[in-house]
Amino acid sequence: MRHLAPVLSWLWPRSLRGQVLLAIALTLFLAQGIGALLLYRAQHERLEAALIHTAAFRLAGALRDDPGPPPPPDRADDDHRPPGPFLRGRGLRIERTTASPLAAGDLRRAEDETELHEVLAEQDLAPARLVVFRRAIADDAPSLARLARRALRHDRQPAPDAVLVAAIQPQGSGQWLVARVFVPPAERALLVTLFAQTLFIYAALVGAMWLLLRRITQPLAALTIRLERFAETRDRAGQLAAEGPDDVARLIAAHNAMEDRIALLLDEKDVMLGAIGHDLKTPLAALRVRIESVEDEAERARMAATIEDITRTLDDILSLARVGRPSDPEERTELSALVLSVVEEYEDMGEAVDLGETARVALMLRPTWIRRALRNLIGNALRYGRRATVSVGREGAAAVIRIRDEGPGIPEAQIARMLEPFTRGDPSRNSETGGAGLGLTLARAIAEQHGGTLALANLRGADGAVEGLEAVLRLPLG
Questions:
Q1: Domain-located, residue 45
Q2: In angstroms, what is the C-alpha Rg of the chain?
Q3: Are residues 331 and 313 in the same domain?
Q4: Whether residue 108 sits in one domain with residue 32
Q5: Across residues 226-243, what is the average pLDDT?
Q6: How far apart are CA 73 and CA 353, in angstroms?
Q7: Are residues 310 and 343 in the same domain?
Q8: Largest pairwise CA distance in the chain
Q9: Is position 227 within any domain?
Q10: Helix (H/G/I), strand (E/B), else coil: 2
């Protein structure tokens, strides 16, 4: 079963329409299969009963009549009459013989023999012995084939290929009376009828359900596309009309109202953040000018560092708020060249940043935001790991940027928390490390804005000791 699970998951449809249609088809197949089995069994039993009663009727008539001498040969029937003396009856004639007609290879039908005995016993004609079996017409008497075709020609039915042989030995008699009844090919016709009926029901029911589900799933598919587009752009243009069944139309209308409310809240947030940024940066700039009048140089440096820290934190907060609604368009950019330019900025400032292995990878991205993410990640590596090594490569359908440091790493239990806002690995928050814990959060938001991911992992040496931290930024190529 474990080997079949991947195959079944691949065959199982993923869409709502496909799953509902498959469920209906399987249920209909099960119900139709059970009904066909019951109908086939009833038809089979009815056919068997009809054959036995026909044979019993002919044998009973032969027992009541005095057969007399065998009839003279009819030259016209010589080509289709089985050998041996016959009693004329309706259809095939009754054969009288001294030996049992049962031959080697014939299989007796116990249920048919029991039923034939009961029918004859009800008429006080219980035989001393009886046998019932089926035999192919060609094996019983080849000349019967023409008679079988002639017997069923007026019904426009296919000629039978088997005959039911019922033989009885009356009480106190040494002879056998043998009746033959053609087995009509009604069972095959029944199977064809059931198959055609099943196909018609499948076409009618599944076709009607497909049309109904199409009316439901088309608006849902359009709504899904609309949701994806709104999540990416936050643009209210192109809202869907409330169409389809009432439930789906109400869902679309509720979604449109939700979009309007979200867009309004985002606009209010942007206005509020813009006002905060303006109102805070203005007094900070004034403070930066005033501290120049402080005579103590050390105190002046500490005050300037504090103002600079507040300014950076404010920039991070405003950038994090704007990352979901970027204003700059995507551009096709050669990623290794962009990374090289950022690394050169740090080298020009005398920072310990090295460029590792690189590969040429071109993709659509927003260069300004990717630069911001790289600066945050490299700055974080320098702050806690003293040295940063940046490499660029391609892994499958993604471009991968790796930033490694030589610091103490992060406890495994805290790695996931480090990507959350206002979380810092250094609890002291002293002036050496600084920051408000938004750098990694902003880098992750920028990666997700481009459909990518940001992950952190400790680097370990051969002895298992932590030798640094690696930040992995993955950006999809498509």
A1: yes
A2: 46
A3: no
A4: yes
A5: 81
A6: 118
A7: no
A8: 151
A9: no
A10: coil
Helix crossing, 439-449 with 297-322: angle to 10°? Answer: 30
How many structural domains are present in the chain? 3
Which pLDDT belongs to residue 35?
80
183 and 144 assigned to the same domain: yes
Mean pLDDT of the 407-424 span: 80
The structure's pTM equals: 0.48
Domain hosting residue 243, numbered range: 234-322
Single out the residue of 99, 172, 160, 92 nearest to residue 131, CA to CA. 99
Between 148 and 42, residue with greater pLDDT: 42
Q: Which two tokens stand for residue 103?
A: 């031959």
Between the ranges 94-108, 141-155, 386-400, where is the mean pLDDT highest?
386-400
Alpha helices in 65-173 (DSSP H): 110-122, 137-140, 144-151
Choose the final residue of a domain: 322, 352, 367. Answer: 322
DSSP state of 162: E
Q: What is the pLDDT of residue 22?
A: 82
**Which of 119, 123, 102 has the alpha carbon at shortest distance from 49?**
119
Lowest mean pLDDT among 24-28, 72-76, 97-101, 200-204: 72-76
Pairing of β 86-87 and β 94-97: antiparallel
Query: Side chain identity at 436, as an amino acid letter?
Result: A
What's at 157, amino acid-wise?
Answer: Q
Residue position matching structure tokens 């090594």: 389
* 265, part of any domain: yes
* Domain end call among 222, 249, 267: 222
Is the CB of residue 310 less than 8 Å from the CB of residue 318? no
Q: Is the pLDDT of residue 3 over 70?
A: no
Residue 340 above 60 pLDDT?
A: yes
Q: In this structure, how many other beta carbons lie within 10 angstroms of the beta carbon of residue 445?
A: 21
Q: Is 475 helix (H, G, I), strand (E, B) or coil?
A: strand
